Amino acid sequence: MIGHDVIAAAAERLGKASTQRQACAPVRDLLGETDIDAAYAVQMLLNDVRITNGARVVGRKIGLTAPAVQKQFGVARPDFGVLFDDMVVGDGDAIDMGRLIQPRVEGEIAFVLGAGLDNPSASVVDVLRATEFLLPAIEVVDSRVAAWDIKITDTIADNASSGMVVLGTTPISPRGLDLTEVALSLEHLGQPVSTGIGAACLNSPVSAVAWLAREVSRREQPLRAGDIVMSGALGPLVGVDAPGRYRADFSGLGHVEAVFENHEGAA
């Protein structure tokens, strides 16, 4: 069993990278490549620090849901991280690239819960009953690990490689929608850079949220009413190397735009 000193050392490495905006070495040299519980212990330690410093939890994110993304990182299971209030930006609002280290973007469907989901056997029916509305979204993922050299324990420890989330502003009811058929087109400079479909997200974004509800309930960190849940990527990640605009269009759900700016504020 990995001791608290090792957990603390991994958290210190990732925390320093985050504070200094300077990528670090992977933490799997400390945690190994398979100890999922140890990786979540690191994540919790880092998140507790953020909460102590005044950040407020507003939801969760699911990562590694799409086969294309799993293939990119050589993993075969999803993971989750925590969303904080300072990570959420609105459609078209500026994102300062100085806050990020090596950002990438992906199109996702955000679920906003009207009721909690504290059930270790939660089903898709439970998820649909609890969901108040959906929003088109772009997740800006980021890694504190240099060159995105990550395995499953690295990304879990690093809050599931969380960065920021961009949310659309028009709520859509999930009732009557087949989310497996929602098509995504993510564009940069008017050209598609990533495409996908809802079925690529653990067969359905609803299934992904049900997986999350079971997992966090089992870990005694259940989903609460009002939580925002980023359900996972519908298509491959796209690197963001310079200021610019990325627009995600979702069939039946509308669109959302992430705008990256440099330190001087020019997009």
Give the tags.
267 residues, alpha+beta, Fumarylacetoacetate hydrolase, domain 2, eight-stranded mixed β-sheet, five-stranded mixed β-sheet, 13 strands, globular
Walkthrough of the structure:
With 267 residues, the protein is α+β, with helices and mostly antiparallel strands. The chain has a single domain (57-261), classed as Fumarylacetoacetate hydrolase, domain 2. The chain contains seven helices and 13 strands. The protein has helices at residues 4-20, 28-31, 36-52, 67-73, 124-130, 152-157, 205-218; strands at 57-63, 79-84, 88-90, 94-96, 104-113, 131-141, 164-167, 183-188, 191-197, 228-233, 238-239, 244-250, 254-261. The strands form two sheets. Strands 1, 2, 3, 5, 6, 7, 10 and 11 form an eight-stranded mixed beta sheet that branches. β12 and β13 (254-261) form a beta hairpin. α5 crosses α7.
Strand-helix topology:
Blueprint: H1 4-20, H2 28-31, H3 36-52, E1 57-63, H4 67-73, E2 79-84, E3 88-90, E4 94-96, E5 104-113, H5 124-130, E6 131-141, H6 152-157, E7 164-167, E8 183-188, E9 191-197, H7 205-218, E10 228-233, E11 238-239, E12 244-250, E13 254-261
Parallel strand pairs: 1-10, 3-7, 4-13
Antiparallel strand pairs: 1-2, 5-6, 5-10, 5-11, 6-7, 8-9, 8-12, 12-13
Helix pairs in contact: 1-3, 5-7
